[in-house]
Amino acid sequence: MKKVFLAVSLSFAFCVTAFSQAVVPAVDKSPLDISYYPNNYTLLKIQDKLTEPLMARVIYSRPQKNNRAIFGDLIEFGKVWRLGANEATEIEFFQNVKIGGTTVKKGRYTIYSIPNADKWTIILNKELDTWGSFKYDQKKDVLRVDVPVQKEATPTESFSMFFEKTTSGFSLNAVWDSSRVSLPISL
After folding, report:
1. N vs C: which end of the chain shows fewer Cβ within 10 Å?
2. d(Cα 172, Cα 82) in Å, to the nearest integer?
3. Going by C-beta distance under 8 Å and a sequence separation of 6 or more, which residues neighbour residue 48?
4. Cα 36 to chain center, whole Å?
5. In terms of residue numbers, what domain contains 49?
6. Alpha-carbon distance 128 to 73, whole Å?
């Protein structure tokens, strides 16, 4: 009886141990990335080299081209796109800004786009922490503004977003394949 009890106890302990171990998720094909304005904000901050305050941060996932036709094919023209992969891209402003003549209050927003061949409509939306654009609700839009598409001579493999200083503030650039758009942001 003791042998049976010991065997059952050991089997139970083995099963509990085996099933309680978490499986490490696979590495995502579209890694998460963050861009700040001013550029390299976190590094400049720890080096005590900041010359301007933190203005904005964008958090997005970086899909890859992988020899695919992107705009007009993988990303359909005229349809809302999450501006990246996986979770919908989010932008945070650390003070009030102006975009397309509209004041956008300090805070966090989801940023979508509607790509077309010659222009993209950039959308800021109040709905946060969502995946893709499947539950996109136009009623929660804070802003819509059209920006022209610039063609790049050399295609960009990984979707990239970054900020750039301008004479009136800064711009958010989105580049992928042979397309680039810049969203002007002023103070």
Report:
1. N
2. 15
3. none
4. 12
5. 28-186
6. 27
